[in-house]
Structures are given as structure tokens and as C-alpha cells.
Amino acid sequence: MKTLLLVTVTEFFKQRAGMFFVLLALLFGFLSGAEHHAFAVFFLTASNGMLYLGIIWLAYTLLCAQFLAALWKHPEYTFIYNARLWPSPLRASRFGLLAIGFLQPLIYYGVYLIAVAVQDKLLAGLWPIFPYYFLLIIIIGAVAEWRIGNPQIFVEKDKKQFFKWPFKRFRSWTWWSLEWLFQEKGVTLLAGKLGAMLFTSGTLLYYSTDQYDLRLPAVGLSLAYLLNIGISFELYKWESETWLWGRSLPVSRWRRMGRIFLIHAIIIVPETLVSVRNGALSLFEMMQLYILGLSVLVTTHLFFYKKEGLLEECMQAFLFGFIGLTLLILYKIPVLIIAGMFVAFSFLAYPRWYRV
């Protein structure tokens, strides 16, 4: 079952990572918390609100079903047809779990609708989501059952590009690294950015409920930026395992350090834009928190070199490091001074920790 989920559901989110990033940008970059709440109330109270929601969910489900039917036609998925040997009840339950894996975004939004319905006492309009889930699971499960009952295997030929990009591919280590993240680690990238953006939104939402100083968002956003550790670890593996020959290139140590700062500065842009869009912090305050988050994330990335990518040994150090950072913030040490300390430490530690 785990293999079935990995080769199907994970592949879906990996190949559709770009689409989900666009949706995240639209949902968190252009819509505020009040607008999200207004949409939820509309779905729960309008006469055709749940009908519109059902149409949106059905369109997403059909996209998943089409992907599933097309994916299982590839030669490397011939082992899937061994599922016909499973007893019918077992096959139905496993295809149901497969469908739930595809429907994760809808389930998460359903949880949000439940929270809004409980908060605003609108439970009377909530009940249609449960038959929706049941029907959508049946649709994906039926497509999976139909595909294994009608095997169709083909070898895909190289297709001519409908649109050819008029520019040459960028000759940039940063561009190649980001390209690799999108193409090979789309699920990790998507999960990391979703968690960071949600935590950022939650921190700023709580910050706007009362009068607080900069320490609250400093702690919250530092943790949100640190949620990109998974992405940073994938960059370490990219350099240490996939792009090994890059370490032997005649590139100065400080230029390599600049690359690390640049790519992490790009990675944390989405949650920074969410913060700017929220408007709870001034531009100068947001700049301070961005520099702090960047310096902390780069320091954690360099620690991977010290431990040679052993993530288990790094996590305890990260935990105690964040506790120390929180104490520094709570003692009212200026954010820029803390960020400067981390930057200085990074430049001092890099020559000792980085091994060619």
C-alpha cells in the first residue's frame, strides 16, 4: 500500500507542484484572512454555495482521475496490475485510501470549513461536504478499478514542444538548483512552503488581535522560516550526491557562500510576501525579520556540512538553537544585531564545516 501511494499520489503532487504553487500564491498572496473567511461563509450560507463548492471539487477530482488513468499506462507501472489478485474488499479499501491521498487538499479545506462553521454557528450548511467526500472517493476508486481491469501499456515517444522558449537556458548554479527542486523534489518543496506560509499567516493573525511588540512575530516568523529546513536539506543532498562534480570546480569559497545565501533568500520569499500582504508589520520590521530568518536558515544549512547530512544528529542541535534564539529575542536584543551575529557566525563556520 505504501508503494502504491508513493508511486501514484506522490508522483501526482510532484508533477503538479507548479500548479499548486500558483494556487498558493493566489490564496495567500492576494486573499487576506477576512476574504478566506468570507468565501467559507458564502459556501456555508448561500443557496447555491455548496453546489459551487461541489463543482470545484469535482473538477479537481476529475483532474486526479485523468492523471491516475494516464500514469498507470506507462510500462514502469505494470506491477500495478497485480492488484487484480487482491480480494475485492481489500482492493476497494486500498483504492479508497489512494483516493484520500489524492483528495488531501480538499480534506484540509473541509477542516477549515468545519472550523468556520463551528465558530460562526453555521453547522446547518455544512452537511453536504460529507457526501461530497464519499462520492469523490468513489470516482477515483472506480477509475483505478477500471484501469487495472483494462490494461493499456504504451511507450511514450518524445513529443515536439508546442511552445519553444526563445531564450537559452540560464547558466546559473542557483537556477539549476531551483529547477532540480521543482522537477525532482516538488512534494518536499510544496509541503515546506505550505507549512511555512500557514504558520506565517497564523502568527500574524494572532499578532493583529492585540498590542504586541516585535518579539512575537520575530519568534513566530523565525520558526516559519525554519520550516524550510527540509528544502534546505534537499539542497545539501543535491550538492553532495547529485551535483558532486560541482565541488571540484574552481569556484572561490566566498562565492559558494554567496550562492548559499542567494538561494535561501529566494526560497523564503513566498512566506515573506504573505507577511507583507498581511500588512500587520511595517516594511522596516518585515525587512528585519526577513534578514533574521535568512541568517538563521543559512546557519542551519551549514550545520548539515558539519554533520555530513546526518539529519538525526542535526535535529537536536536545531531544537536547542531555536530555544536559544527565542531567549535572545525575549531579552529584547535588537533583531538586526541577532541577525548580524548569525551572519558573522556563518562566515566563520563555513571554512571549517564545508569540505570539498
UniProtKB/TrEMBL annotation:
Transmembrane region(s): 50-72, 93-118, 130-149, 187-208, 214-236, 257-275, 287-305, 317-350
The entry's keywords: Membrane, Transmembrane, Transmembrane helix
Protein known as: Uncharacterized protein
Organism whose genome encodes this protein: Dyadobacter fanqingshengii
